[in-house]
Structures are given as structure tokens and as C-alpha cells.
Amino acid sequence: MASFFQLLSYLYTMAIALFDLLLLRAVLLIRSAVPGSMVTHSDKLFRIITTQYFNLVEEKNPTICYSENFRHHESRECAVCLSEFLEGESLRKLKCKHTFHKDCLDKWLEEYLATCPLCRTRVLPEGLVANYRLLKDHIENGGSYDDATFMLSALYGDFLRRLF
After folding, report:
1. What's 155's DSSP letter?
2. Is 154 helix (H, G, I), strand (E, B) or coil?
3. Which pLDDT tens digit goes with each residue over 98-148?
4. Which phi and psi angles does 94 have, rounded to 5°?
5. Which residues pair with 122 in a beta bridge?
6. Is 88 helix (H, G, I), strand (E, B) or coil?
7. Residues 80, 137 contacting (CB under 8 angstroms)
8. What beta strand segments (E) does the chain contain?
9. Distance CA 39, CA 28 (A)
10. For residue 84, what are the β-bridge partners?
11. Distances, alpha carbon 114 to alpha carbons 100, 118, 152, in Å
12. For the chain, is the Cβ count within 10 Å smaller at the N or the C terminus?
């Protein structure tokens, strides 16, 4: 039964990744069809990709609000910034039971691999993170939208070509 739920989780993650690809393709189609369309900078594409990435992080590890009741059961400080948690702060508790300030963990997840800073347990599937990192690096290094589309098709192979 556990493997069935793992399969469903994997399929759900892949559906999110596919949605991201479809969204990117729609943006590219709009850009090519409408002269001077709203999408003209790689920053906008990067924001779309990053937003989808963190929506998935939020879905898998929802934000919680710190309270004094929480203090008796869990750690009292963020292992990233080494500050104690304060009443009302936004925290993110991972599946491995480690807790961090939401902003600290999100910065960690964006800069490094999507793993727990303490025990290195994966926060998101490895393939999804690798694709995000490749696209992020490509866009930050001046790649064009057409190059990004080419990279996506290289990552997803014939599966992506059959979709479009």
C-alpha cells in the first residue's frame, strides 16, 4: 500500500512538472504570436518557474505559525540562521521532522539542492530539482526562451515532442 501512495505521489509531482512545461509553452506561443507581448525578459520566465517550484515546496511542506505550545515538542531554533523561533513567525516543518524559518529554508532550497539542511532528506523528487536547477542556471546565464524550450525537450525527450 505504501508503494501505491509513493506511485501516486510521483505521478502527482510529474503532473505538476508537466503543467509547468505546458505553462512555459503557452507563454512562448503568446510571445511568438503577439508582437511586443508582455513576456520579453528572462526574469519573468524565471519568476514563473520559481513560483511553481515553491508552490510545490509549500504543498509538500506547508507553512506553520510558531506558538509557545509548539516549543515543548520541537526544536526552538532555526538551524540555518541559528536564531530562536519567536511567537507568530512562519516556519516550515519537513517530513524528516526538522523545522526552520520559512524564509531561511526557502532560500536554502533555492540556492542548494532541495534537501533538509540537517539530515539531507529530499524535500522534492530529485528529477524535478535537477530540471529546476538546469533551467535556473540556463536563464541566469543569458539563455533565450527558445534555448529554454530546447533544454526542456532535451530533458523530457520524446515525451515532450509528442505533447507539442
Report:
1. H
2. helix
3. 999 999 999 998 877 788 999 998 888 887 777 777 777 776 666 555 555
4. -85, 165
5. 115
6. coil
7. no
8. 63-65, 90-93, 99-101
9. 8
10. 77
11. 14, 12, 20
12. N
Sign of the CA dihedral with 44 first, then 49, 55, and 57 last: negative
Kindly list the domain boundaries of the chain, sorted by start residue.
Answer: 9-27+39-61+123-156, 62-109
CA distance 23 to 98: 33
Would you identify the CATH topology of the domain 62-109? Herpes Virus-1 (3.30.40)
Residue 41 C-alpha cell reads as 525578459
Query: Cell numbers of 53, please?
Result: 517550484
pTM: 0.58
> Cell 526544536 belongs to which residue?
75
Tell me if 81 sits within 8 A of 101, measured CB to CB: yes
* CA separation for the pair 146, 143 (Å, rounded): 8
End-to-end CA gap in the chain: 35
Q: Which three cell numbers stand for residue 79?
A: 538551524
Place of cell 540555518: 80
Share of the chain above pLDDT 70, in %: 71
- Which pLDDT tens digit goes with each residue over 37-56? 444 456 677 777 788 888 88
CB 53 within 8 A of CB 45: no
